Task: inverse folding
């Protein structure tokens, strides 16, 4: 099982402060990676994700960056690219959602969701991926969504952004696979995090969702651990441009 060992690797996980990103950071640390966590409000020290990573015996560093601010994303990318210790694994997981019917979906909501969920992902990946291409190896994992495949309900900006993430995954894989860089995505199903709290608080939506999940339960953030470690490891060396659902069977239904 050594192909899954991440000992000595350095992973950057965005949106690491809570939810899916925190679980991904913990999984990578438990597989051996040191972790740089990034999020909008990540504590300089003492965060829950820091405790998870250090409990696994790995080094943790916190970086606070607001992905709604393109300059902050550019600065983050430049800072990571200039470091002596190269980034081996980039997990593009930070994301936000705005729920409103299309006719009420404001330009501000649209632009904010596209900036945080898509444009920031590209800018950061371009900066960090350039070094991976030059070195001839690296693993990039995007967090896509079921709404990379489906339309969703009253989340047009989010759906457009997540379709974009799936397309970007394939576009970058096409360019970077010959250089030894693997670009893939995980499409989580309905996972119990802050992102889906409004759905779980609505009894009708919550029941409708649950009734459609063959696994007959909502996912939890730790359900993404296995796919994350796999795609970050040399076990996935021949996997390029894949968008892998981890959804309790939702898409197969
Ligand atoms: N939950 C689901 O069912 C589900 C399904 C499919 C895809 N996803 C995707 O999974 C990813 C993680 O979502 P989650 O469910 O774990 O949601 P979450 O609990 O709301 O966590 C979102 C994370 O993203 C960070 N973030 C949000 N806006 C940011 C910004 N402007 N700048 C920097 N960081 C920002 C947050 O930072 P702070 O903690 O500092 O605020 C937080 O760490 C997202 O890309 C989401 O679209 C979730």
Result:
């Amino acid at each position: 099982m050594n192909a899954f060992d991440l000992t000595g690797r350095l992973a950057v996980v965005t949106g690491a402060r809570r939810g899916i990103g925190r679980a991904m950071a913990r999984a990578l640390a438990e597989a051996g990676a040191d972790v740089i966590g990034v999020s909008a409000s990540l504590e300089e020290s003492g965060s829950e994700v820091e405790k998870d990573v250090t409990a696994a015996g790995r080094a943790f560093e916190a970086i606070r960056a607001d992905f709604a601010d393109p300059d902050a994303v550019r600065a983050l990318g430049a800072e990571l690219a200039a470091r002596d210790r190269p980034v081996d694994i980039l997990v593009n997981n930070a994301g936000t959602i705005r729920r409103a019917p299309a006719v009420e979906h404001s330009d501000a909501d649209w632009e904010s969701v596209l900036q945080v969920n898509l444009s920031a992902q590209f800018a950061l990946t371009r900066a960090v991926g350039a070094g991976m291409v030059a070195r001839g190896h690296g693993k990039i994992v995007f967090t896509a969504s079921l709404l990379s495949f489906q339309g969703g309900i009253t989340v047009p900006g989010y759906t457009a952004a997540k379709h974009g993430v799936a397309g970007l995954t394939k576009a970058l894989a096409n360019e970077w696979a010959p250089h030894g860089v693997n670009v893939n995505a995980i499409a989580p199903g309905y996972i119990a995090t802050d992102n889906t709290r409004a759905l779980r608080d609505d009894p009708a939506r919550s029941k409708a969702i649950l009734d459609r999940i063959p696994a007959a339960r909502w996912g939890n953030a730790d359900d993404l651990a296995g796919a994350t470690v796999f795609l970050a490891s040399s076990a996935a060396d021949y996997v390029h441009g894949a968008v892998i659902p981890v959804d309790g069977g939702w898409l197969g239904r």
Notes: The helical segments are 19-30, 48-55, 70-81, 107-135, 156-176, 197-200, 203-212, 225-232.
